[in-house]
Amino acid sequence: MAFNSMGKGARRLVITSGVAFVAAATLAACGSSGGGSSSSSTPAPAPTTSGAPAPTTSSAPVEKSKVYFTNNFSDNDWRQQMQKTVELAAALPQYADIMTLEVSNSGVAPEDQAAMIESIIAKGDADAIIMEAASPEAVNQAIQNACDAGIKVVTFDSLATAPCAWKVAVDWKYNGQVAAAFVAEALGGKGQVAVDYGLKGLAIGLDFTKGVKEELAKYPGIEIVGEYEGGFNPAQEKSGTAAILASYPDLAASMTMYVGAPAAEAFIAAGKTSYVISGTANNAGAMQCAGDANQKCVYWTDSPGISVLALNVALDAISGKEATPRTLVMDAPNGYFYVKGNTSIAAYPNANVSEWTDGVNFYSDQPGSLSLPVLPVGIDLPITAADVVG
Length: 390
Fold this sequence. Notes:
The chain contains eleven helices and 15 strands. It has helices at about 75-90, 95, 110-125, 140-150, 170-185, 205-215, 235-245, 260-270, 285-290, 305-320, 385-390, and strands at about 25-30, 45-50, 65-70, 100-105, 130, 150-155, 165-170, 190-195, 220-230, 250-255, 275-280, 295-300, 325-330, 335-340, 350-355. An eight-stranded mixed beta sheet has the order 2-1-13-7-6-5-3-4, with helices on both faces. Strands 9-8-10-11-12-14-15 form a seven-stranded mixed beta sheet, with helices on both faces.
């Protein structure tokens, strides 16, 4: 998502209690207590770091912090891997020596998540909550109640706009812009496009579609002929693309927010011999695209390990090293994109673009459900793809 930019200069996140942070994934500071939607301006971020704590060297006893993780749905592979990754991290000694993690997932509806937050507050033992927000605004009061109770709150990936919460984001608007530029260039500036908006009302879907539409508006020969609710669900992604294909047989691209391969299957079933697909980086999409001579594709990173970054920020908030709530953007400022077809994106020459390569950025010996990369670029923890999907 894009945010109002604020602050320049590199800094390193540090946790006390005898535990030092090591350098890790590149983030960008993009705001203080502002909102979490890319309806605000494009970020002009400065690099910063957020890393895993190093193993404890002091023999002195450490009072462990209690961190709650809450997720409003776990019905797709990415969400399951995101939760598994933070659980694996929390079990490593450098985390387990200083904290405990408790998973308290809620139902999909914002009111369900708000009720879960209130139940965590009532327990009285929480130092921090890290959460995928069910809504940009509808859980804000519950988050504020947690803050008022002295609990540090970090929203990540799908953000809430509560001013008291830290926010660890993916720049979905920017990813939509770059992916749309790839699609437009791959189509030679002409063609019909379908756009997946994810889940109705979800911040990341609003951000993605805004970026896509703003970028494609630069190409008079490109027409968005339909939008569909992919729901981060392979079956919906395929049926949504197929329904638009049925009405627009000249459809040339489907810009999904998820796997991509099911949308490609809809084109194959329709007998199409040339098409373009977008999605979040995953093994199934990579394998399908790499093996399909008719397809060009672009995928952006949305590592499930963003949950570990959120945990790191929460620990620094507890320690006082992160004193003021702000927004951090993973993989900023230029993102990471995997493609087949055009190996550069003329409209975004600074974007980090790599061609899909088996054994390098996707893995044909691993399940298609694997989200890529497992950990954000720069995070160095002993967590493997097999651990996450096992």
